[in-house]
Amino acid sequence: MTASVGYPTLRLVRVRIENLYLKNMKLGEVLELQGIMLSEFYKMINKKAASHFKSNTKQR
Hints:
By secondary structure, this protein is mainly alpha-helical. The two termini are about 30 Å apart. Strand 1 (about 15) and strand 2 (about 20) form a beta hairpin. The protein has one helix at about 35-60, and strands at about 15, 20. Helix content is about 40%, strand content about 5%. The protein has one domain (about 5-60). The longest helix has 24 residues, at about 35-60. A two-stranded antiparallel sheet has the order 1-2.
């Protein structure tokens, strides 16, 4: 992915997923989303899905 633009990647570390920062989570650790965090995550996903669906239907 990055090598194609001249930056070979030896290690890639995910630090967040959208607006959820993973901070110091260990390999295999699970973060259970609850309350406001969960509802905000669903809102974000629904917005992305809706915009993706709109852009794909315009191309047809």
